[in-house]
Amino acid sequence: MNSHPQPRLTAAAFTLIELLTVITIIAILMGLLFPAINIAKDQANKAKAKAAVTGIAAAVKQYYTEYGKYPIGASTITGDVTFGDKAANTNQLLFDILTNYPDQGSGKPNTYNPRGIPYFEGKQASDPGAPRDGFTPTGASGSYTVRSFLDPWGTEYRVVLDNDYDNQITTLPYTDFGAATTGPRTGVAVYSLGKDKSLGKTSSTPGSGPYGGSNGDNYFRNPTTNTNSDDVISWQ
């Protein structure tokens, strides 16, 4: 008969201090991880917007090659035309032409794209409650225009066309790009307002101007801090 006592098995367990230590380490790691995730998301959105503004500009140029004019529809404006500034002109008309969206009720090619060529393709925004990164779907909440094309932050892309055909855009609302000597020498300029949904940067103390600074004082690249705004542009 074995008289030796059997060893007692004891269950290992974390002490309270060990648990608190682990929780603290996890909290620190999460605190380090979240900013990195946000930075990666912002960079991905900027990359999407850059690809979009480049693609839109290319689509407009292809249309021009085909028809010998820019896709401005029935606009009677004689100078450069801006689409996407909802106060003046939503970009829906422009993209109806570029995507060959049929005339309402006719089923025929768009009046301003009679050859029925689709120059631009894009997905529909997936969330009608907060549409972004695509075409605004029917029934979207808020003051969105159906079929307008939105950037990753839910703002219409702005497209400026050289409607006076001098191969120069001089009506951009940036102080550093809005003149005959600084405007981009191209037939089309496309830009996104970026994550902050505001145009450019001001170089002065916020005041009475349309974008927070002095009137007309709104830069893509801030001359005071020498840094770019978060806007995404096609001409650089």
What is the oligomeric state here? single chain
The overall average pLDDT, rounded, is 85
Find the structural class using helix and strand composition. Answer: alpha+beta
Instruction: Report helical residue fraction.
Output: 25-40%
The major beta sheet can be summarized as: 4 strands, antiparallel
Number of helices: 2
Strand content: 5-15%
The dominant shape is elongated
The radius of gyration is 27 Å
Order of helices and strands: HEHEEEEEEE
For the record, give the distance between the C-alpha atoms at the N and C termini, rounded to a whole number: 91 Å
- The count of β-strands is 8
Main-sheet strand order equals 1-4-5-8
Low-confidence stretches at least 5 residues in length (pLDDT < 50)? Answer: 206-213
Looking at this protein, list some descriptive labels.
about 240 residues, two-stranded antiparallel sheet, 2 helices, four-stranded antiparallel β-sheet, about 10% strand, alpha+beta, elongated
Describe the overall structure.
By secondary structure, this protein is an alpha+beta fold. It has a domain at 17-89 and 155-233. It has two helices and eight strands, in the order αβαβββββββ. The protein has a four-stranded antiparallel β-sheet, covered by helices on one side. A two-stranded antiparallel sheet has the order 2-3. The protein has a two-stranded antiparallel ribbon with strand order 6-7. The protein is elongated and about 105 Å long. The protein starts with 15 loop residues before the first helix and ends with a strand. Mean pLDDT is 85; it is low at 206-213.
